[in-house]
Design a protein that fits this description.
Heat Shock Protein 90, 3 helices, globular, alpha+beta, five-stranded antiparallel beta sheet
């Protein structure tokens, strides 16, 4: 089991670095091209959600994102962690501001995408925002 940790500013400008890291680690695990592309999209979306979460919670200085890659024999787990309150899952349904509602719908769509592309998605909102995305590496060898 190997772990790689990446710490980046919570800004969209740094997401390409995350995607490149996903590609490198997933390639070493011999994941299929489709699985690697799914991982890149899902991890990018998790990072986007963390950045959006910081904006929605009014965090003027969003700080940094921590991304942990846990390469196991049976799976690759990628955890995206951002500081802040854990209320990012609660869409502001009663808000009078249309812009805030639009941002909340982006969150819903983002989590739908992650769940559709990954084998498992775990969310921990107790101490900030933490999303773990899991893609199994077991490849069906039957032809």
């Amino acid at each position: 089991m190997s772990e790689v940790h990446l710490q980046i500013p919570a800004q969209a400008d740094y997401l390409e670095l995350v995607r490149l890291t996903v590609f490198g680690i997933a390639s070493k695990l011999n994941l299929t091209y489709e699985d690697i592309e799914d991982l890149k999209v899902a991890v990018s979306e998790a990072c986007n959600q963390a950045i959006l979460h910081a904006e929605l919670t009014g965090n003027a200085a969003p700080g940094e994102l921590g991304i942990r890659f846990d390469a196991r024999t049976e799976a690759l787990a990628v955890t995206v962690k951002a500081p802040g309150s854990g209320a990012f899952l609660a869409a502001p349904s009663g808000s009078a501001e249309a812009g805030l509602q639009a941002e909340a719908s982006k969150i819903s769509l983002g989590f739908y995408l992650m769940k559709a592309l990954m084998d498992e998605v775990e969310v921990d909102a107790q101490h900030g925002m933490e999303v773990t995305l899991i893609k199994y590496t077991n490849i069906n060898t039957t032809t």
